[in-house]
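Need C-alpha cells for this chain, all 489 residues.
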Amino acid sequence: FVPAMLTSTEIVALCGGGLALALVVSQLVKKHKQDEVIRQLGGEPVPTVSFSQLVASFKSLKSIVSFFESSVPTGLARIDFPFGGPFYFVYKDTEMIKTFHTHPALDFRKGYELFIGAHQPRECESMTEQEFLGVLQKALSPDRLGEYAVDMGGLLDDLIAKLPEEGDLDLFPFTYELVVRMVLNVFVGPLPEETITRLLKHMLKTDLEQYVSNPIHFLFPFLSYPVRRYHYSKVKAIITQLYHERKTTGSSRRDLLSICAERFESRPDFLDTLFFNVWATVFAASTNQFAATAWLIYHSATHPTFSADVTEQMKSMTSPEQCLDSFPLLESALREVLRKATQGLAIRRALAPVQFGPHVIPANSYVMFFHGVFHNDERTFPDPDSFIPDRFMKDGRSDHESLVKQFKLQVFGSGRHPCTGMRLAPVIIKVLFSTLHARLSYSFPDAPALPAFQPFGVLRPTRPLIMHFRKKPLVSASGSLTPAPAPAP
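Here are the C-alpha cells for all 489 residues:
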C-alpha cells in the first residue's frame, strides 16, 4: 500500500533517512557503552572529534596539524566514525607514541587487517617468523650485501648505457623499473627480458600503495581484492616456473631462490614458502624503495649545495659497495626524504585495555598514528617544509638512530616491525642514487603536484614528474663512479 503512494525517489529518500537515523542512534549507543567501559577501567574521558571534521582537514598536512592541535589537547582522541571501531588517534605526545609502538597488547597485524591485511596473500601461514628471519639473515648477510651492490652497479651500467645521450622521462616509473630489476637480479638472478616484462606488469598491479592511496579502497578495501589476487597468482606462477627451470638446469647461483631451496625444499608447502619469501622481501619492499630514491634525485636537483656536497663525497668512490658505509650525507638525506615523504597511517589493535597517559582505551579498539602529522610538527622538526639533511647529522656522522630511539622519527623501516627487506632496501637506494648521480646530469622543469594526504606508504606525486637528463662522460670505460670533469666552456 505505501509503495503505491510514493515515487521511487521518495522511497529512496525515506530509506536513506531511515539509515542515517539508525547510524546516529547506533553511534550514540556505542559512544555511551564506550564511555561506560572507560569509566569502569578508571581512565579519564577521551576527547571525541567528528570523523567528517577530520576528513575536512585533509586539505594539506598543515591543516591536519592545525586540526589535531586544536581538537586533541591531551594527545589522544576518539574518532566518531560511523562504522566499526572504536577508533583512537595518538598525536604529538612522545610518551603516548612510545606506548603505541612498544605496548605488547597493541597488535600491528590485527590492526592492518582492518584495511589491507584481510586481503593480503595467505601463502605459507604455517611458516614461523623465526624461520623466515633465518632465511633473510643468510641471504642478506653483510658480505653478501657488498656482493649484491657490485652486481647491481653492473646491471645499472648496462641499463643506463641503453638510454639516449639526452632526453626526458617520468621519474617515478623510471625508478620503479630500475628498483624491480635490481631486486630481481639479486634474488633470482639474470632473467630473460620477456620474463622481467611480465613480472613488472603483474607486480605493479599488486602494488599495495596503488590501492591504499585511493580513497575508494581506503573505505572499501574488499573491492580491489579479486584484481590483486589475480595478479598475485600470475606472479606466483612465474616464480614457480623459475624454480623448476633452476632445478632442471642445476644452476649453482647463490641467491634467495637457492637458499630457499636448501632450507625448505623438503616441506610439502615448499612452493608456497618460496613465493612468500620472494614476495614479502622483494615485491613488498620495492613499493617504497623506488619512491624514496625518486625523491632523493629530485631534491639533489633542486638543492645545489646538497648536490655539490654529494659529488664531493663521491670523488673517492670507485666501486658501488663503497657507498654503503662511507656516505653519511646520503644516509642523512635518505632519512630526511623519508621524514618529508612518510605521511602514512600506522594502525594497531588493542588485544587488552591499554593505558595512554591519563586515559585507558578498551580492548578491541583500533589505535592510529599519522606519521606525516608528527613529522611536520615544527616543535619536533623546525622548518619542516624544507629539505635539510643536516638535521640528522652530528659530528660528521648520521645521527638518525638517536631520533628513532626517542620516537621523534617514525619513518618506513624504523620501530619494532620494520620491513623484512630492510637490510636490502638501503643498499638498493644508495647504489641506485649514487650511480644515477654519477652518470647523469638532471633537472626538473616543473615542481611535483602532491596529494593533500596519502594514507599509507611514501608520498607520490599526482601527475608525472618529468626529469630532463643528459649523460655525463666517464673517466674510463671501467665503470668508475666518479664522472669526468666537465669540459671547459
